[in-house]
Design goal:
This is HlyD family efflux transporter periplasmic adaptor subunit. It comes from Anaeromassilibacillus senegalensis. InterPro entries: UPF0194_transport. The chain folds into 3 domains: 96 residues, conserved putative lor/sdh protein from methanococcus maripaludis s2 fold; 95 residues, Elongation Factor Tu (Ef-tu), domain 3, CATH 2.40.30; 107 residues, OB fold (Dihydrolipoamide Acetyltransferase, E2P) (Beta Barrel). 14% of the residues lie in helices and 49% in strands. The chain has 2 helices and 22 strands. The strands form 4 sheets. The chain has a 6-stranded antiparallel beta barrel with strand order 2-11-14-13-12-15. It has a 4-stranded antiparallel sheet with strand order 3-10-8-5, with no helix packed on it. It has a 4-stranded antiparallel sheet with strand order 7-6-4-9, with no helix packed on it. The longest helix is centred in the first third of the chain and has 26 residues. The chain starts with a helix and ends with a strand.
Length: 332
């Protein structure tokens, strides 16, 4: 009888010890979210904003103060190069017209640093004082300027034509980012006024910087022009647009999420890599910051699992892993 009592007692003690040990082990096991490292294609980019505008706009000027005899077009009409726009009668003498043209061309050239040919101010004359203004390019008529008295002022455009060449975006790029941008780089163009994401290409970069006032104060920017490929009816001149210019693309880059990388006091970086069921502190070297994390050059390999919440876990600690899927692509 005494043996049976001892056996029962030992059995109960063993069961209790197992339960206590299980609870202790459970209390020492931490839930950990891990991500499997894989090679991704990553892009570096510069994002900036600006205005949509027409590629080319030409204005037709009267050769001198003139009276309007007949207007052949109105706003919204499409014209071809050489089409008649307006018949006018010059009200100034030939000598006065010549002086006006020379004076205005000199002033405009000095202001714009560009020589202005007289052909921009006049077209073929039909009679001594009667002339016909014709279209210098093919495109859409966007403005017709005639005074209430039916006259044209010298030095002011009579008709403005937007060419058929399409649309572009004129962007302001901060001086700290302009060194990354080159002519020919691809771009993605979006805006609040249109829902299509258009593609484009950097066409030109200004040779001079300028100061502008922004919400954060004065900043130095450089103008960059990006073309708009196959613009639809939803994107219009004057709209605000945002362009993401792709400055570089790299294949097979290992990405460690920002949440998984930590730094020591001396600046060296590390991750907690999952080995078996334990977290192992592993030094890493990073190069480049992308949308989904750091580019890692050493310390981890493709297929390794790293812990996303390293601050809550100690080196060597036993963990229960919950695998999180990594992103397929990464962009700056």
């Amino acid at each position: 009888m005494k043996k049976y009592v001892q056996l029962i007692t030992f059995t109960c003690m063993a069961i209790a010890a197992i339960l206590v040990a299980g609870r202790v082990m459970k209390s020492r096991t931490t839930q950990a979210t891990v991500v499997k490292v894989s090679s991704l294609t990553v892009e570096s980019s510069v994002t900036c904003s600006g205005k949509v505008e027409r590629v080319s706009v030409r204005s037709v000027y009267p050769p001198a103060p003139a009276a309007v005899q007949k207007v052949y077009v109105e706003i919204g009409d499409h014209v071809e190069d050489g089409d008649p726009l307006m018949d006018i009668l010059v009200t100034a003498s030939a000598s006065e017209t010549e002086i006006l043209q020379e004076t205005y061309a000199a002033l405009l050239s000095e202001y714009t640093q560009t020589e202005i040919p007289f052909s921009d101010f006049s077209s073929v004359g039909q009679e001594e004082d009667a002339q016909q203004l014709t279209a210098p390019i093919s495109g859409e008529v966007t403005a017709v300027s005639i005074t209430n008295q039916g006259t044209l002022e010298f030095g002011k455009p009579a008709i403005t034509i937007a060419s058929d060449e399409g649309l572009q975006v004129r962007l302001s790029v901060n001086e700290s980012q302009i060194s990354d941008i080159q002519v020919g780089q691809p771009a993605e163009i979006t805006g609040v006024g249109f829902h299509t994401c258009y593609t484009g290409t950097v066409k030109s970069i200004s040779s001079e910087a300028k100061q502008v006032v922004s919400t954060t104060g004065q900043e130095t920017v450089v103008e960059v022009v990006v073309s708009v490929d196959n613009p639809g009816n939803d994107i219009k001149p004057g709209y605000t647009a945002k362009a993401k210019i792709i400055t570089a693309q790299n294949d097979n880059v290992l990405i460690a999420p920002y949440e998984a990388v930590r730094a020591e006091e001396d600046g060296s970086e590390y991750v907690l890599k999952l080995k078996g069921q334990r977290a192992v502190k592993t030094p890493v070297e990073t190069d480049g910051e992308f949308e989904d994390g750091f580019g890692v050059t050493s310390g981890i390999e493709e297929g390794d699992q790293i812990i996303m919440n390293p601050d809550a876990i100690s080196d060597g600690e036993h963990v229960v892993a919950q695998v999180e899927e990594a992103e397929g692509d990464s962009h700056d």
